[in-house]
Amino acid sequence: MTKRMGYRDWRWQALWWHHLFLLWTTINGQTRYSIPEELKQGSVVGNLAKDLGLGLSEIFDRKLRVASEAGEQYFSVDAGKGELVVNDRIDREALCGQSASCVLPLQVVIENPLQLNRIEVEIRDVNDNAPSFLKSDNILEIAESTVVGVRFPLESAEDPDVGSNGVKTYTLSKDDCFTLKVKEIENGRKIPELLLSKSLDREKKVIHDLFLIAMDGGNPAKSGTSKITVNVLDVNDNVPLFEKTFYKVAVQENSLNGSFVIQTKATDIDEGPNGEIEYSLGKHTPPSVLSLFHIDTVTGDIYLKEELDHETQDSYRIDISAKDKGFPKMEAHCSVQVDVLDVNDNPPDIVLTSKPTALPEDSRSGTVVALLSVRDLDSGDNGKVTLKLPKSSPFNLKASFSNNYALVTSGSLDRESFSEYNIEITATDSGSPPLSSKKIIPVIISDVNDNPPLFTQPFYNVYLKENGVPGSILYSVSASDLDFGENAKISYSILDSKVQGVSVSSYVYINSDNGSIYSMHSFDYEKLKVFQIQVQAKDQGSPSLSSNTTVHVFILDQNDNAPAVIYPSSAVLGSLSHQRMSRSAKAGHLVTKVTAVDADSGHNAWISYKLAEATDASLFTVNLYTGEVRTKRAASEQDDSSQRLRIEIKDDGEPMQSATVTVSILLEDGLHEPILDLRQKMAEPSRKTGRITLYLILSLASVSVLSLVTFLILAVKCMRNSSSSDSCCMRRSDCNNYKNPNRNMQIQLNTDGPIKYVEVLGGDMMSQSQSFRSCMSPMSEYSDFTLIKPSSTTDFTEVISVLDASLPDSTWTFESQQIDVLDVNDNTPEIVLTSEPQPVREDSPSGTVVALINARDADSVNNSKVTLRVSRGSPFSLKPSFSNNYALVTSGALDRESFSEYNIEITATDSGSPPLSSKKIIPVSISDVNDNAPLFTQPSYNVYLKENGVPGSILYSVSASDLDFGENAKVSYSILDSKVQDVSVSSYVYINSDNGSIYSMHSFDYEKLKVFQIQVQAKDQGSPSLSSNTTVHVFILDQNDNAPAVIYPSSAVLGSLSHQRMSRSAKVGHLVTKVTAVDADSGHNAWISYKLAEATDASLFTVNLYTGEVRTKRAASEQDDSSQRLLIEIKDDGEPMQSATVTVSILLEDGLHEPILDLRQKTAVPSRKTGRITLYLILSLASVSVLSLVTFLILAVKCMRNSSSSGSCCMRRSDCDNYKNPNRNMQIQLNTDGPIKYVEVLGGDMMSQSQSFRSCMSPMSEYSDFTLIKPSSTTDFTEVISVLDASLPDSTWTFESQQVSRQNMAFSVI
């Protein structure tokens, strides 16, 4: 049935209500439906759309939905017809119980705009429930002595239906002793009662079975039945009797808790409760017995509650009581004696009679440490005890009397090994099984000063830049003493020694407390390169002990000297250098050579030459490294006869130093090579000047012979002193552990990086040896991680308290009363969600509606007024709408990455006294918006790849993460287009878009490509998508895949035989020719060695292992074949080794002079006048004399300076310990704590091998040879070393700060 109240005109209202209301505006009506319960699902209740005045299209557009205030959704709206239909089974009794009226309120929510309507559905009752009893079986116990007329209330039947469908009548089955009475109370409820109409006799009938039937008033009527069983109770008139009045039992003391002791038994001839017996301990039982024993109240069995202890009490007496359950209760008594038997249950106990004191570590054997005793509470064999100590302990037990012992030392003590002993003593008794106990006695060993201080290192290497600030700290040494207290306190001092004839204390001083060493003044690398400091550490014990260490201080060079020109000699004096050249000279003709040196060393001494200005720049070129001036093309008649060149000479230091030299070249027709041939004959002296010339020649010969004799004497002295440690060129202290004499290198370190530069000094004037190529192998490993903790939501439920009903056999008393119920504030407010919250976007503006809620309270008046509030700190607030309805809206910015879900706690409080409140947690999920770009774990990556690898192999895997969720967090990887040697990088590598793995497209060749970069982009799949980039640096590592290639002699390059000529008058060591080869590989793989594989006469020639120079081993004789053939093998040092060979044919000729002279020698131009010859002889004599004098002075001064340490001025090759591989390229080997794996030195002209070195390593160098090792991934770095292209001859080395954690290395320069 539907009833609709619409709108009325205010005039009809005024007339109908007799002008009670003067003016009313429009009143919102209410819709009410009435349906019977138990309708089928889908049954139509009413046309909701029609009653609300809505069209069918508005149902969809305005999202009409129905919400039940009861919580269960019993109704739904048919969107197609607009009808309200039954959604679920409706049970009126479940909804409204016994209430006469059952109305189900509904809320209709309409959006756009948001509107709330209220409707009511009345549920009518039908007779669908039969009367039922709470218990189908009821038992009544009635004593046989009960008098007639007593009434016993019975259980009323319950019918969930109301009105006439409820319970109507009761009936009882027929019985001789019982009848039924029905009592009707004021509210119309009927209460059945059982009436005893005849006396009971238990001996005749023990049980009476009755049936109570309840009928309702429905049509048809329904009924319910309850069975009533009446048990007739007996009367108690007999006393219980025990089988024995006294019991005795023996129990072992180790019996477990709950163990059976003995059974007592009593009987009662009565029946039922009157014959049931309960056992208990006597009323006067002491508490000690009650704590140990327990009796079963039904069986009379006695059990142990706690463990017995024979040592505490060996016997117990227990009084037992037996009572029946009759009324009045009858009682009987007996006694039980329990004897406790002893078992071995007590371990021995060790007691310290005197506590041990500190024991000096030099105490003698037998010294008493402590006194102790042992005892056992058990008796007999169980109480006999023996003691023992661990075998490894330097202590022993010495028995005294009656289980008393003395703990004494039995061996030597050492506090530094064991400063404290925890002596474990084991005591074992003789029981079965035996028991034991242990006691640990701590004994402290006091210190004796028996250990000297020990430095952390046997020696220290300190690297100090020259020109430093005086007073700055050089290093801090540290020593430790294993002793304790005053014996371990250390003071530091410097032992007196000499540095260049001056006490070392004038250079440095040390802080005696912390071992910090400070400089007294600044140092000059060019004057002092290395010196040693002897540091002593002394403790304060008595007597004091000490130890020493050596601090090697290496002065590091700074670029404070400009290059100095040493050739041409005229340029040295600042004048113009004049040179002549034939116009017929071809391209590549050597015109002259500029040679300069730099007083600095290493990187600062690397010199490069550059043609700054030239009359014709197209005609001449200057070698960058050697300074050789050669023709770029053949000279022509059009070229000016006078050419002026200005050559700039720069070092490689910071700041850079430079110098210039000007060379004037005169082009002449018909001029031959400027190198003189020894075959040219000297002009014959004239008769007039013959004597003067003869005297000058004799003087020159005498001075030359004297110089030669002097050199021979010094050479013999060096050979005689070869067994000692003396040196003629350097001090012994400067050459410990040196390697590769004749040249050395230096490695500069700082506190945060291992290697700054590697320097190689020296070289002859005509060959620049500071040209290098390098390949580094940096291994940088670091990562960033961002940890995102997942948020969690805890679901809470409320606990409903369940009250306990009264006992079923309790007696009920009912009286008629009139009760007026006054309302009190006993109902808490209730918060109901009108609409479930949907996920909220994290970019939602403030004020966005999240959910609709309603607050209600079952109380009335002020007790039902409810206020709501939201917990603080939440970006949400409540916006009231109407009649206790609210909208939950956002009040601030949301960020899903910070909080992906909010559990909004809403508190409802009423206005009662005292006020009651309730809380409801509304979970709100925040949906993701793509507002975070992917982030790589590293800003850049370094990848090291061997050349000639397998195409398709994986290079590296990059990884990026995105803080967003779902599709917004899915990351895909791609390679950004870039060029590598003018080719797209995508032709070299490709990337897996899913996991970021980068693969090679083909193998790489180190000689063609050494390093390239890959730009990788990580992009998410959000809309719009976000991305970030990273750089992957790929370093190609060299493999030995190239054999050495011969570049000189030129004929050998073309594969033909190389022909050379040599005079038979050549002496020992004569340079015949030189073989030069290069290797396209780098580093260790490019180290080249030369070997004479075959020879016509192996005793005549030798080949230098590292330079390839072919020299005579002895003077040639007339018996030697005029044609000599040499097969020279050239090998590199790679793995596997590569090699090549060259064949040289040497023709021995008579009268052939030396073909090569020094360019600095002036050509004697014969003239008609012989005066020039005399002048030249005088100049030569003066030059040789001055040179000899200067040589003597230099050697004398050096010997005097080194006399205190070496005592000799010659150095043996064996003095450089572990000398290996002279005149060879160099390499530095580090362990896994250092980044550099090798350093290679390349370059030099064909006739002078500039890669040849002889160097002595600085003291304390760890390795005796340079060995190449492969890069290690465990190397620690903080920054990346820049690796430049080694293919260019003018490549430089760039080093940045690195971290070396284990070892520093240094090399000094001679």
Side-by-side strand order of the widest sheet: 1-2-8-7-4
The stretches of 5 or more residues where confidence is low (pLDDT under 50) are: 1-28, 673-686, 723-817, 1154-1168, 1204-1310
Alpha-beta classification:
mainly beta
Distance between the termini: 119 Å
- By DSSP (H or I, 4+ residues per run), the number of helices equals 9
Based on CA inertia axes, which overall geometry fits?
elongated
Main sheet specs? 5 strands, mixed
Helical content class: under 10%
Number of strands: 82
Rg over alpha carbons: 58 Å
Average pLDDT confidence is 77
Strand-residue fraction?
35-45%
InterPro entries: Cadherin-like_dom, Cadherin-like_sf, Cadherin_C, Cadherin_CS, Cadherin_N, Protocadherin/Cadherin-CA
GO molecular function: calcium ion binding
Subcellular location: Cell membrane
Membrane topology: Single-pass type I membrane protein
Jot down its keywords.
about 1300 residues; mainly beta; elongated; disordered C terminus; five-stranded mixed beta sheet; 9 helices; four-stranded mixed beta sheet
Describe this structure in words.
Pfam families: Cadherin, Cadherin_2, Cadherin_C_2. One of its GO terms (cellular component) is plasma membrane. It is found in: Cell membrane. InterPro entries: Cadherin-like_dom, Cadherin-like_sf, Cadherin_C, Cadherin_CS, Cadherin_N, Protocadherin/Cadherin-CA. The chain crosses the membrane at residues 692-716, 1175-1197. This protein has 1310 residues and is mainly beta. It is built from 9 helices and 82 strands. It has a 5-stranded mixed sheet with strand order 1-2-8-7-4. A 4-stranded mixed sheet has the order 9-15-14-11, with no helix packed on it. A 4-stranded mixed sheet has the order 17-24-23-20, with no helix packed on it. A hairpin with a 4-residue loop joins β59 (876-880) and β60. α7 runs parallel beside α9. It is elongated and about 185 Å long. The relative contact order is 0.07. Mean pLDDT is 77; it is low at 1-28, 673-686, 723-817, 1154-1168 and 1204-1310.
